[in-house]
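The instructor's notes for this session suggest beginning with a concrete chain rather than abstract definitions. Hand out the sequence below and ask the class to guess, before any prediction is shown, which regions might be ordered.
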Amino acid sequence: MDNAEIRHIAILGSFPPPLRGVSSYCLELATALADRLGVEFLSFKQIYPGFLYPGGRLAEDTSFPGRDGASLTVHRRMTWYNPFSWIQAGFRTRADLLHAQWWSVPLAPIYATVCAAFKMRRKPVIFTVHNVMGHEHSGLFRAISRILFALGDHFIVHTESNRRQLVARYRMPSKDVSVIPHGSLDFQIDAAADRDRIREQLGIASTDKVILMFGAIRPYKGVDVGIRAFAAIHEEIPDARLLIAGKPWESWDGYRDLIRRLGVQDAVITCLDYVPAAEVHRFFCAADLAILPYRRFDSQSGVGATGVAFRTPMIVSAVGGLPELVGHPAAVVPPEDHQALARAVKKALEDGVF
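After discussion, reveal the predicted structure:
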């Protein structure tokens, strides 16, 4: 199909509210594309059962902005337990093209059904591959992705390293893969936010130096590395504070014990729950900088994209696409090196070099 013939597209993914995964990205993508094309968003009424979601039940987050309009129609009809809803999503659309946002193994049967319906109608399928390898490097994720990708005509990744991984691991031609950066998540910005008031509500003094770790707490994110780095920082910068906000996908007990052993419990502020979209700005407004001390990572980061939107200085691990989020080489440190992370943070706080 020639590009000139494409006037109306369908996007398959998770559109808020409620959902999780790539909902924020999908909101920004659909809104941007709707300025140029007609967009039907094929989303979910129930995405999958709560027991499959390590972060706990999928409670609704109604604080996302509404974006339905003349050029954007959102269909929230699919449920994980009803294959007929998947078939209807694939066939009951007048879209010329399907743009599938791929990231999660439990969604594979649904994605395969919808994509196959488009292929049967001789309509092209494009995948944006958010996680080329899967966060946990699962063999099942790779096997399922290989099956799904057989239905794709073109593929989008967020970084050049992802392009190389996709081409090598799935043996696809380079010409079939495009690199399009993740982009910032600007909808979360609250221009009226009062930094001092937010800090007061969080129990943080206006003069404190606040280091933020934000997002779901998962093993690959190196939260323990960040805590160890903070302990070294706090020795030299007593008014430094570590703000950790996000829902644990694992037991918090080990992290709590580490904080106590290092003697920094009075300088660590935690909000161990899902942060609604309307509340995200509070944590980035309160922060002086954010750290992403990931152990491993193969894609681009929604947390990083949020930091970019808020113009929050960031220090990141040299993994995946994280280095592309920052503009200074000194803001990139080796993974699992809490000493290097501590040095970079101290320099940023003391000299403002980033």
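Then share the key points. The radius of gyration is 21 Å. The mean pLDDT is 88.
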